[in-house]
Design brief:
By secondary structure, the protein is α/β, with parallel strands linked by helices. The protein is about 45% helix and about 15% strand. The chain is built from 12 helices and 11 strands. Helix 4 runs parallel beside helix 5 and helix 4 packs parallel to helix 9. It is globular.
Length: about 350
């Protein structure tokens, strides 16, 4: 290849791997396959230890299985429900998770869980078998994914936490986190980190407790009194989540995020926000006054679908706003999306 593209596979596995790329593949896809094959070739050429190769091979295989599991449902909005595997069915938190999952399923969404017991089982029960997707983790100390039949095509099983977390976040449009232990807190903090740094697309996060519960309010006191007070996060980063003890308010937060906002996409250094209803001129002027601080240059402006969007037939019917976002203030970007949602009434 020329022009700085991914190198052709060479060395130990090169010729055989290069032949595995279909001649009919689109050029961009073929380049990605060649890059993957080159990475495998480098592992072989470096005489990589078996244990290291096994990690790479297993992770790639697990992601491939997960992509295949989710692919038929990518046109459907999804919410991932996180929470403790130890929560019992008689716990109010269990009932809250089940109720919220049922509400989201009734709204046409699918519910994604870790496919285990506790809050995960509650989410599956609420969604119903046709609206539930599971990403199970193999843990010898915990029971198998009893909430799913083992042959359910909407269940994928994984060995590694990092591949599992990738799919639980990547494939969803919204997230609910109920109280849990180290694993749940890890998932909550990683999710907020991904949103804070722009490594995940903007999405609503609800931290859900039950009336009288103190778990998330105590968590937030730590975030405010220790983390924010020490300047370790910005004040607007608290816009990335909402705490509530009410299922109806939780559902309103999740569904309301998409009241007008539809999706976003980077085109070069331009961030494109796709909406259902375009702002009027006065509304656009107000947005520019309120959010000028996150625009590196120029203004927030309407735009027609840009060439890469047209090439992919990417929601061409929707109005758009484009801005040179500074890629730093994602809490303020969330506030901009909230302001756009108000436009739809």
């Amino acid at each position: 290849m020329t022009g700085g593209g991914p190198p052709e596979p060479a060395g130990i596995l090169g010729p055989a791997l290069a032949a595995a790329v279909s001649p009919g593949s689109p050029p961009a896809l073929a380049a990605l396959y060649r890059s993957l094959l080159s990475a495998a070739d480098r592992l072989a050429a470096a005489d990589t230890p078996v244990a290291d190769v096994k990690i790479a091979q297993t992770a790639l295989a697990e992601m491939g299985d997960a992509f295949a599991t989710f692919r038929p449902y990518r046109h459907i909005r999804k919410v991932t429900v996180f929470g403790s595997a130890r929560t019992l069915p008689e716990d109010p938190r269990y009932r809250h998770a089940r109720t919220l999952a049922a509400t989201m399923a009734e709204a046409g969404w699918m519910v994604v869980t870790g496919a285990g017991p506790g809050i995960m089982a509650a989410g599956i029960e609420g969604a119903g078998p046709d609206r539930a997707l599971g990403v199970d983790i193999r843990l010898p100390a915990e029971q198998e994914a009893t909430s799913f039949p083992p042959d359910d095509p909407k269940l994928v099983q994984m060995r590694y936490f990092f591949t599992r977390k990738l799919m639980l976040v990547r494939e969803s449009d919204a997230y609910v986190v109920l109280p849990g232990g180290f694993g749940t807190l890890d998932e909550a903090f990683e999710l907020l980190t991904l949103l804070q740094t722009g490594k995940a697309a903007p999405a609503p996060v609800v931290l859900l407790d039950t009336p009288g519960g103190s778990y998330w309010r105590a968590w937030e006191r730590f975030v405010v009194d220790e983390v924010a007070a020490d300047g370790l996060i910005s004040a607007e980063d608290r816009s990335l989540y909402r705490i509530t003890d009410d299922c109806e308010a939780a559902a309103d937060e999740l569904l309301g995020f998409y009241r007008n906002y539809h999706s976003s996409r980077w085109i070069g250094d331009l961030l494109v926000l796709r909406l259902s209803v375009a702002p009027s001129r006065p509304e656009l002027a107000s947005l520019n006054r309120r959010f000028a601080g996150i625009v590196e240059r120029g203004v927030i402006r309407p735009t027609r679908p840009l060439p890469p969007e047209r090439a992919g037939d990417d929601h061409l019917d929707l109005p758009r706003l484009a801005l040179h976002f500074d890629r730093a203030h994602y809490g303020r970007l969330r506030q901009l999306i909230d302001a756009c949602n108000v436009l739809a009434g």
